[in-house]
Amino acid sequence: MKTVFQLFITFLKIGAFTLGGGYAMLSMVEKAVVDKKHWIPADAFWDMIAIIQSLPGVFAVNTALYVGHQVAGRKGAAAAMLGAILPSIVIILLLATVFREYRDLPVVERIFKGIRPCVVALILAPSLRMIKSAKVTWKTAIIPIAAVILIWWCKVSPAIVILAAIAGSLIYAIIMERKLKRNPSKEVKP
Length: 190
Hints:
By secondary structure, the chain is an all-alpha fold. The chain is built from 7 helices and no strands.
């Protein structure tokens, strides 16, 4: 029961101090669950992130559910999820009651403009660590670059890009497997 409470408190802190959504919380989650609590090993953490990115739903909630379940089963998943979403619910309710009245004030506009660069940094830092942990090379960098160009510039739906990446990966794996079967003495390099 102590671990379930620790999961709740850990994700409550993360949820309370994360601006900018799920990706912005990655650094805090990694520091808490990998470095401090040692609930998940570092390599498993980035594998978890890859899995979570492919799931439907809110990234922050999926992360809390996954970590909580890995650490303490269903109760841990529920506690971590509740901890992650409770601060957002409270903050949104408070802002909704106050924001309508004060949104046009110059100080409020400046506050939101000041938060934007912080959110970019909070998203960029874990993205760079993810690139490093994924062992992206100049040879394989073409895939994320092509995905960005297709989504941002060509306005292709991210769902189509993800499905194309899955299909491409499956085709590549089948081709490599066939090459290995034809010549089992040589290891086929990707």
